[in-house]
Every structure is written in structure tokens, then in C-alpha cells.
Amino acid sequence: MGEEFNLSAWSRTEKDKAKDLRKAGFVPAVVYGSGQKNLNFKIKALDFAKLFERAGESSLINLKIDDGAPLKVVVKEVEKEPIKGGLSHIDFYKVDMKKKITVEVELNFAGEAKAVTELGGVLAKTKDNVEITCLPDKLISRLDVDISSLNTMDDVIKMSDLKLPEGVELASETDEVLVSVVETVKEEAPAAPAVEAVPVEGEAAPAEGAAPAEGEKKKKE
Q1: Considering the entire predicted model, what is its pTM?
Q2: Which of 94, 150, 96 is nearest to 124 (CA)?
Q3: 10 Å Cβ neighbour count for 70?
Q4: Using the 8-state DSSP alphabet, how is residue 113 labeled?
Q5: What stretches of the chain adopt beta strand conformation (E)?
Q6: Residue among 11, 62, 16 at smallest CA distance from 40
Q7: Contacts for 112 with CB less than 8 Å, ≥ 6 apart
Q8: Contacts of 176 (CB under 8 A, 6+ apart)
Q9: Among residues 46, 154, 31, 51, which one has the least CA distance to residue 95?
Q10: pLDDT tens string for the chain (221 positions)?
Q11: How far is CA 96 from CA 32, 106, 135, 136, 174, in A?
């Protein structure tokens, strides 16, 4: 089990209007799930933002509401205000510690690929997250992907190549390519624009294809 996350919360009454809570620095929230009826409460926006940055949606959280016993939960959904982008509402899911759950975890691409550092290629990722299945006490906040095996432009890392911690499995294991290295495309320099002859002030430009008059020819000579 990874880092332990704790979050304090307070019961929400009918007088606690969502708009007023947000102005006071709180976020309305609800918890539901295994053997848990919907329970509305409020949490400090700053506390949740700091925790969520580290925990994400795939870490087990000890949620303590008022003086009650901590509930084992995961973040189910984070709603944000459409214009300002502030936290609007949080959904938590209470887990059964004896039953496996499926969550989405972030992929952390680590290491150096020779195909990038020595051959000048560019890392091409097809996914930033994958779904895993495990018991709640085996949850991880991210999954590391070692890209040091990418030595040539032909090397790839597939879903089936991922190294998973004990007790963790992919929700769906396939041969889908997660990351590869592609060659950089060199842009060709644009052709120089054609320079048009500009007539001298006071002289009329000769008609296209016409030879200059005899008098004009002598003047130029």
C-alpha cells in the first residue's frame, strides 16, 4: 500500500447553500457506495486541492466526517465551475476493502530512450492513463513506464509490457502500443519569391513581350 491520505469533513445541513459554501472556502460533497447511503457534507477546498494533486482518483482516502469513524473512499468525480474553473462539487465512493475495484491511473513515463537522445527521435504516446483492477489496499496513484528500452525507431512499449505491482492487474490487457519513437520531420526552406522589375518613375512599363522603341533603346545606351 502506498502513501496514506487523510481528509477531514463536516456534515452539511439544509441551510448550507452551495453558493455560500464556495464563498466561504468550502466545497459541497457526497459519499455513496458499498453499504453506504448518500451522505452530504462539506470539505475545505484548499485541503482537497492539495490532497487531490497527490492522490488523484486512484488512491485510498480516509475520509473523517465530524467525529465519526474514517470511511475508506476514492474520488469518483470532481466537478468544476465552467467559467472560473473553481471546485464545484466532489463525489466520493466508499469501497469494500474485500472487493476488487477498477480505477484509472496515470502513466508516468520515466527514464531515457536512446532513440530520442542519440537518434533525435520524438516520443509518441498513445495513452496517458490506463485502467487497473485490484483490492482497495493495493491501489496506486500512478504506474511507472520505463522508456529506456526504446533504443531504435522500431522499438515500442505495449500494454502487455507494463510492469505491474503485486496484486494489480490491467482491466483489459491488449497488445496496444503505448509509446514509440518517431523521426522528426525536417521542414524545407521556402523558395525565395520571384523579384519583379519595377519601372523607373516617369517611364511607362513596356507591354508584355514587346521590344523597346528605337528611341528608348538609344537613350538607354
Answers
A1: 0.73
A2: 150
A3: 13
A4: -
A5: 5-11, 26-33, 36-44, 61-65, 71-80, 87-94, 101-110, 122-125, 129-134, 142-146, 156-158, 169-170, 177-182
A6: 11
A7: 147, 148
A8: 126, 127, 158, 159
A9: 31
A10: 567 899 999 999 878 898 899 999 999 999 999 788 899 999 999 999 999 998 888 899 999 999 999 999 999 999 998 888 889 999 999 999 999 999 999 999 999 999 999 999 999 999 999 999 999 999 988 999 999 999 999 999 999 999 999 999 999 888 899 999 998 866 666 666 666 655 556 555 555 555 555 555 444 44
A11: 12, 23, 9, 8, 28
Query: How many residues does this entry show for the chain?
Result: 221
Place of cell 502513501: 3
**C-alpha cell of residue 104:** 484509472
As a whole number of angstroms, the distance between CA 131 and CA 104 comes to: 4
Show the cell assigned to 7: 481528509
34/26 Cα distance (integer angstroms): 26
The structural domains of the chain, ordered by start, are 5-94 (2.40.240.10), 101-182 (2.170.120.20)
